[in-house]
Write a structure and sequence with these properties.
Strand order of the largest sheet of chain B: 8-9-10-11-12-13-14-15
Number of helices of chain B: 4
Shape of chain B: elongated
Distance between the termini of chain B: 31 Å
Radius of gyration of chain B: 25 Å
Strand order of the largest sheet of chain A: 11-12-8-14-16-17-18-21
CATH class of the largest domain in chain B: Mainly Beta
Structural class of chain A: alpha/beta
Strand content of chain B: over 45%
Strand content of chain A: 15-25%
Number of domains of chain B: 2
Oligomer: heterodimer
Order of helices and strands of chain B: HEEEEEEEHEHEEEEEEHE
Number of helices of chain A: 16
Number of strands of chain B: 15
Chain lengths: 500, 311
């Protein structure tokens, strides 16, 4: 346990780190050199390079909504490599076309000499060969952790009359795959050795991971990691595990808690990283000190790649419990692509109501896509949750809990990774192998209720995303002035007769 | 019963019943000048015609033919009685046989002026008010065609019902009737014209109870035509085996209907009628698939056969 302040990393120290030779090794995928000269070799090819980890630390420190130095570029149709290379000359570091990473027709460009991605994007947009260029946005997860006391009170599922909804459709079916784009979930029982800062030195740390005992491995697709490494999907945070639990935790198994679509197949897609991934990569690079506790996030390039992956690999429902205040055309087009491939999408509307109630993306994009829904939250009283963003772009509401109003009893409880096992300011030896009932609140918790309902409806025969959205809206209970109706799963699954 | 079977039944009934009215088209020619045509009761002269006048026979009582009056009289009566001995048949069609109850009605064929016995008077006078019960079967097509086709598989379905009818000598009709439709379909959702079957059964029962006021605007012997209109209430019930009571529909709606029909007397106490009915039940289907299609009228266009008993 440590009691040091949350943020021990300053930009000055980051600068020193960047000045070392380590910076060069960060940029390479694979093993990195640690401060004590003990080599650390990643068991799987890394996607989170040291440079990117540092960029995320910088983003956290400066509260940037994007990954510094990264842009997403789309060239106009028919542009040759030569033409693309000419456009890239506009960037100071003069990157090569071969250095670009491609996600469908989107090129991810990382510039080492210009950290301000808005400047980079503006430079590239001026080139005649470029169709669009935008910063690689860094979305944030939309949940607030709660005191991890034990409790077993899923008021949310009772309020939605889920037992009677399951009478009509018991938990969807295994041929309905729900992709959860989040921090991942543990798909292996395994222990990895990383390097981390223990407060005085960088050293090895064994980090155990275990599969959720209340979510059968047989129901979990291998998924994919788009942000950390090419290894198995693991959750270093707990957010993704909790969200996945709401979507499809085992039910009627006499164990713990229930999930909405408890027979659906889960496809965990890791698009977000948190403190520990950043910390491990920094420490492996030899950096001494702690990363900011809010380091990490969900880079747009990973989210976009995951959306295409989910759509191309048969997912019928996507859940995105993430968002930010800047729009991304590339992400919106990926969402449209997924809907056109037959996937219904549920997106958290954001938790900033009391911080100016901004429009949150990609949730606001969902309002313009038939088949994707932006999801606000209600608390235990089934009224607008104090934090949940509102606006005409919020299309539907579901239980997200409201701890500020109802304390722990107002949280959404699922079986999740023990928060105390991995709190950045409470431990230097995190573990992700112990599960407890965890209460969280946020629109992150509301969105998987809608995703789960989407899976149930798909299984019931409503196989078009736009129809799923229309049916959810048609049967929602009017919530009055906030505009977003509360989902009514039983009524949606019951469908319509001649007169009722 | 399917709609097709009901239609077949309707056609068969029609084929059986129509020949009964064929004799009504026979014609006779008056053979003597100043021949009297009597009103029913044989107390009042309906008309006086000369030899050579052609009359259409619509019935027979004892030694009299009931014929259509060649001229419209001031009292509005359309038929009268002429002695069989004062006319001759114009064609080979069968002439109506004398009805037994009238056998002792008159002593002399062309001498009706003598007082008739009291009981005969009663027998020959038409009832002032008739009271009849009826059963009916038909085929109806819902105005909410797309809605019923989507949920129930068809908008055309058999209807069965019955009721009571009161008629006056002057042709007014008052009718109370109840019909019934019931069928089972599947609950669905419709989006952009595509129907998604949600796999749950739904059973719809529609029972309109109607009150009608009508008038016989045309009558020839045993044939008559009429029209009526009225109001009523539709009892609508839609249930599903998986539904709780609050999820089922059990509602009442006001309905309005208009009917045209033709009736044929088969015997003195049995008649059959063919009717077409148009009904409107606005605002009944606002929440279900009817609401999605903007088909909120539960009205029906129906054709049916009616069997009436009573005098």
């Amino acid at each position: 346990m440590i009691t040091s302040p949350r943020r021990l990393v300053s930009l000055q120290r980051l600068g020193r780190a960047l000045c070392t030779a380590l910076a060069a090794t960060f940029a390479t995928v694979g093993a990195v050199q640690a401060q004590d000269d003990a080599p650390w070799t990643s068991p799987h090819p890394l996607k989170l390079s040291g440079a990117r980890a540092l960029a995320m630390v910088a983003a956290a420190d400066r509260d940037l909504p994007y990954v510094p130095g990264e842009v997403l570029v789309r060239f106009k149709p028919g542009m040759t490599r030569t033409a693309q290379q000419r456009a890239l000359r506009a960037v100071r570091s003069q990157p090569q076309v071969d250095d670009l990473r491609w996600i469908h027709d989107i090129a991810v460009l990382r510039d080492t000499r210009e950290a301000d991605a808005t400047v980079l994007a503006a430079q590239l947009r001026e080139q005649p060969e470029v169709l669009s260029a935008e910063p690689n946005l860094l979305h944030r997860l939309q949940a607030t952790p709660n005191d991890p006391s034990f409790a077993e009170r899923q008021w949310n599922l009772t309020a939605l009359d889920m037992p009677r909804a399951w009478d009509i459709n018991p938990g969807a079916a295994s041929n309905v795959t729900v992709a959860v784009l989040d921090t991942g979930m543990n798909t292996r029982n395994v222990t990895y050795q990383f390097r981390s800062w223990n407060g005085t030195a960088v050293g090895p740390v064994n980090v155990p991971f275990a599969i959720n005992p209340d979510l059968s491995a047989a129901r979990v697709d291998d998924g994919a990691d788009f942000v950390f490494w090419d290894g198995p999907v693991l959750d270093f945070d707990g957010h993704g595990t909790h969200v996945t639990g709401t979507v499809g935790q085992e039910t009627n198994n006499e164990t713990a808690l229930a999930g909405m679509a408890y027979r659906a197949t889960i496809m965990p897609l890791k698009v977000c990283i948190g403190f520990w991934e950043v910390q491990f990569i920094l420490s492996a690079g030899g950096y001494s000190g702690f990363a900011p506790v809010d380091a990490g996030g969900c880079p747009d390039d990973a989210t976009i790649e995951a959306v295409y992956y989910a759509a191309d690999h048969g997912a019928k429902v996507l859940n995105l419990s993430l968002g930010g205040t800047a729009p991304s055309q590339a992400l919106k087009e990926a969402l449209i692509y997924a809907v056109e491939k037959g996937a219904f999408i549920s997106i958290a509307a954001g938790n900033e109501f009391e911080d100016g109630n901004p429009v949150s993306y990609p949730a606001a994009d969902a309002a313009t896509i038939d088949g994707a829904m932006s999801v606000g939250a209600v608390g235990r009283e089934l009224t607008h949750a104090s934090y949940s963003n509102t606006g005409t772009w919020v299309e539907i509401a579901a239980p997200g809990g409201d701890i500020a109003v109802d304390a722990a009893e107002g949280a959404i409880w699922q079986v999740g990774l023990s928060p105390t096992d991995a709190q950045p300011h409470q431990t230097t030896g995190p573990r992700f192998d112990r599960y407890f009932m965890v209460g969280l609140d946020g629109t992150s918790m509301a969105a998987p209720h809608v995703a789960g309902l989407g899976a149930l409806l798909y299984s019931q025969g409503v196989t078009k995303p736009a129809a799923i959205e229309a049916l959810i809206k048609k049967t929602a209970k009017d919530q009055g002035e906030d505009g977003a109706g509360l989902i009514q799963p039983r009524a949606a699954l019951f469908g319509l007769g001649v007169a009722k | 019963m399917s709609a097709r079977r009901s239609l077949t039944l309707l056609l068969v009934l029609s084929a059986l019943l129509l020949p009964a009215a064929a004799w009504a088209q026979s014609q006779v020619r008056v053979t003597q000048d100043r021949t009297t045509i009597w009103q029913p009761g044989f107390q009042i002269v309906a008309d006086v015609v000369d030899a050579g006048t052609t009359l259409t026979v619509v019935g027979r009582r004892d030694t009299f033919y009931e014929v259509e009056l060649p001229r419209v009289t001031t009292v509005g009566r359309r038929t009268g009685f002429v002695a069989v001995a004062r006319v001759t048949a114009l064609d080979d069609r069968p002439m109506p046989a004398s009805r037994p109850p009238a056998a002792r009605r008159r002593a002399a064929a062309d001498d009706p002026f003598g007082p008739a016995p009291a009981r005969d008077q009663a027998a020959t006078s038409p009832a002032r008010v008739s009271f009849r019960v009826f059963g009916q079967a038909g085929v109806g097509r819902f105005a909410a065609r797309q809605t019923f086709e989507t949920v129930m598989g068809s908008a055309t379905a058999p209807w069965f019902g019955g009721g009571i009818q009161i008629g006056t000598e002057r042709g007014w009709l008052f009718e109370v009737a109840a019909d019934r439709y019931q069928d089972t379909g599947r609950r669905v959702f419709v989006h952009d014209g595509e129907v998604f079957d949600l796999g749950s059964e739904t059973t719809v029962r529609v029972v309109p109870v109607t009150f009608s006021l009508g008038y016989r605007f045309w009558r020839r012997g045993r044939l008559s035509a009429y029209a009526s209109g009225g109001v009523g209430a539709v009892v609508y019930r839609e249930t599903s085996p998986i539904a709780s009571e609050d999820e089922n529909a059990d509602e009442r709606f006001a309905t309005y209907q208009a009917v045209v029909g033709a009736e044929v007397g088969l015997t003195r106490s049995v008649a059959t009628a063919f009717e077409a009915q148009y009904s409107m039940t606005p605002g009944a289907l606002e929440r279900g698939v009817g609401g999605l299609y903007d088909e909120t009228d539960l009205g029906v266009m129906q054709v049916r056969v009616k069997l009436l008993f009573g005098r």
